[in-house]
Specification:
This protein is of the alpha+beta class. It folds into three domains: 185 residues, Four Helix Bundle (Hemerythrin (Met), subunit A) (Up-down Bundle); 196 residues, Endonuclease, Chain A (2-Layer Sandwich), CATH 3.30.870; 208 residues, Endonuclease Chain A (Endonuclease, Chain A, 2-Layer Sandwich). Helix content is 51%, strand content 13%. It has a nine-stranded mixed sheet, with helices on both faces. It has an eight-stranded mixed sheet with strand order 10-18-16-15-11-13-14-19, with helices on both faces. A two-stranded parallel ribbon has the order 12-17. Helix 4 packs antiparallel against helix 5, helix 5 runs parallel beside helix 7 and helix 16 packs parallel to helix 17.
């Protein structure tokens, strides 16, 4: 009895199990660095006992059947406890726990069955030990790296779940071979071959549907009339350009405070950094006041920045908040994967909306001392007319909101019970109270939009909202408007990635308009590595269209998407002059006929052009992107892009 159950290795195993709740107690109560250190010291003791009990058992011949069972049980209890601790920050770990419990129940049932049938205890197999090591490392990373992004955390969690699934499959096959009495070896080559085939399936599926780039249909051409964008009368709308990042955040908070009935947000990317949390807190407070909040988010960035993020879970848990995802990422349906929703706008009641190129995080919002992008919005205030352009945007939102491939995200009330979500909920409530105290001007809606300018007409241009390759409605419409210019066209775009149709259109615009200037990021200043490399490789083709190209070198990547036509048309939105915006993404551009808004936008565009130089042909353009001052990582990245660019540029 003593040798089987109470030898030294087994006593160390009992001690390890007893120390697990001690660690959990200390970790949950921890608030200071010293308290966290105490919790991790207990954890270190637990791992030391795990290391020594096996060593002692083998060295002194104390290996027992009970010990073979006790050791993995202690390991699993520790893994489960650590995973529970991780739930205080990462909600997605709950699914890991579910899978973990399913696997361990199976292992326990099969272990008891084999003991009864075979009268033998089978120790952990090598793949089980690999799984334990991967899970231990993954959970340790999640516990110790407090600044880990939610996307990185999701990858670690999914990796652990993937390894656990493979391990479970291997154990099922192992148990089948024991029960049938056949010692069959299940080689890893089948798994490797399956993974390679799956990868090829995903890549081919993602590429093939977008190879063909459709032309604009005759029906759309016949329905499009340049004169429909002009009016001799003043409309009920008033508008202004929002250029400053700090004001862009303040305006969005102000709009949430102004709301009486509804708030609508559509965005390509939304994150929970400083400005993102401030906006989440304001939206959450509005929902608590009874305001209906609808948020539409692109499927790719919803996975990278919302999935597993307790702040968005806390927002989604509010009774009056509904979040939908456009074309959620599904690797098994990769043929839908390249179709993205790139729209960026916010609508409050029937009163005011904001539309432009800004995503909802620190690069675009607020005055944080961090990496920034230059961008802009146009704010439109409806003074009360039924013909307001606000209803064009609202109808567009309704159409896309009701699509079959827009699905509700995290509508279960169970999510609010996750510890990390409860903590985030409290933090957001405290943040909102702090914002009202420290930034009271954000909440002052008295005469909020008196600086708006009168406009004659505002018209929305949009791409089709369907998946797969789209007819290039927005590019066609913008081209027709620019061809109609009497004096001058100024185009600002972060990227220029053109096919022959686009080169031909720019050539026609330049032949009809007296002056056409396009400003884009220089190759070195471009924050998009694909855009930087493609521009360097295809600059000559762009210049041959007749465009007067200016290269922005202001040190901060330029992200504005705007056009000025003559003295009365100002266009702002989300559309880049690249094939992704032309054929793959949903896109919006707002065409504002107003001399005052035109003058405001023109002044802003010209202020950036002070930091731009005229583009010149340079045979060494790409060489500068991989020069001595560039990191090795960036050099490798850009060489790979150069190699793939001729084959895949239609996807960029």
């Amino acid at each position: 009895m003593k040798k089987e159950y109470f030898n030294i290795p087994n006593l160390l195993g009992y001690f390890r199990i007893l120390m697990i709740p001690v660690f959990l107690f200390l970790y949950y109560r921890a608030d200071t660095n010293g308290e966290y250190i105490a919790a991790f010291l207990v954890l270190a003791v637990i791992y030391l006992t795990d290391f020594f009990d096996g060593k002692i058992a083998r060295k002194f011949n104390m290996v027992t059947d009970w010990g073979k069972m006790l050791d993995p049980v202690a390991d699993k209890l520790l893994q489960a406890a650590l995973a529970v601790a991780v739930t205080f920050k990462y909600p997605l770990i709950v699914w890991f726990l579910v899978l973990f419990i399913v696997k361990e129940i199976y292992m326990a049932v099969m272990g008891l069955y084999l003991i009864k049938k075979e009268n033998a205890v089978n120790g952990a197999q090598w793949y089980g030990k690999v799984c334990t090591a991967v899970v231990d490392i993954g959970i340790f990373v999640l516990l110790l790296c407090s600044d880990l992004s939610y996307m990185a955390a999701n990858i670690f969690i999914l990796l652990m779940m993937g390894v656990m699934c493979l391990t479970l499959i291997r154990y099922i096959l192992f148990h089948i071979s024991i029960i049938k009495g056949k010692d069959k070896k299940w080689g890893g080559r089948y798994i490797v071959a399956g993974c390679v085939l799956l990868l090829l399936y995903i890549i081919i599926g993602a590429i093939v549907p977008y190879i063909k780039q459709p032309q604009v249909g005759e029906s759309y051409k016949e329905s499009f009339n340049v004169q429909d964008f002009y009016s001799d009368d003043i409309s009920c709308d008033r508008a202004m350009i929002i250029e400053d990042n700090g004001e862009a955040l303040a305006e969005r908070i102000r709009m949430t405070e102004y709301a009486k009935k509804s708030i609508i947000i559509s965005t390509f990317d939304f994150r929970s950094d400083t400005s993102g949390k401030q906006l989440i807190a304001a939206l959450k407070a509005a929902a608590q006041r009874g305001i209906s909040v609808q948020i539409l988010m692109d499927g790719f960035n919803s996975w990278t920045h919302m999935e597993g993020n307790p702040y968005f879970y806390a927002l989604a848990a509010e009774e009056n908040v509904t979040i939908k995802i456009y074309n959620r990422i599904n690797p098994l349906m990769s043929w839908k994967g390249m179709s993205r929703m790139h729209d960026k706008y916010m609508i409050v009641d029937d009163s005011v909306y904001l539309l432009g190129g800004r995503n909802l995080f620190d690069c675009f919002l607020g005055n944080q001392d961090s990496f920034k992008n230059h961008d802009r919005d146009v704010l439109v205030y409806n003074t009360g007319g039924a013909e307001s352009s606000l209803y064009q945007v609202k109808n567009y939102f309704t159409d896309i909101w009701e699509l079959d491939y827009c699905r509700v995200w995290k509508d279960s009330s169970l999510n609010s019970m996750i510890p990390s979500v409860k903590k985030a909920d409290r933090e957001l409530n405290e943040l909102y109270a702090h914002m009202r105290q420290e930034n009271s001007e954000w909440f002052d809606t008295t005469n909020a939009w008196t600086d708006t300018k009168p406009v004659n007409k505002i018209t929305l241009i949009s791409n089709p909202t369907s998946l797969y390759s789209k007819e290039p409605y927005v590019f066609y419409g913008l081209s027709e408007l620019m061809k109609n210019a009497d004096k001058q066209v100024i185009i600002h775009t972060p990227y220029i990635i053109c096919n022959n149709m686009m080169y031909k259109s720019f050539n026609e615009i330049c032949s009809k308009a007296p002056s056409v200037t396009m400003m884009t990021n220089s190759s070195a200043n471009n924050g998009n590595p694909f855009g930087a490399v493609d521009y360097a490789l295809n600059k000559e083709k762009i210049l041959n269209t007749g465009l007067n190209v200016l290269e922005y070198e202001g040190g901060i990547s330029y992200h504005g998407k705007s056009i000025v036509i003559d003295d009365d048309i100002a266009i702002v939105g989300s559309f880049n002059m690249d094939m992704k915006s032309v054929y793959q993404d949903t896109e919006l551009m707002l065409v504002v006929q107003s001399e005052e808004v035109n003058a405001q936008l023109r002044e802003n565009l010209l202020s950036y052009q002070q930091y731009a130089k005229e583009a010149e042909l340079n045979s060494d353009e790409f060489s500068q992107l991989v020069g001595k001052n560039v990191s090795i990582k960036e050099r490798i990245q850009r060489y790979i892009i150069k190699l793939l660019d001729p084959l895949l540029r239609f996807l960029l």
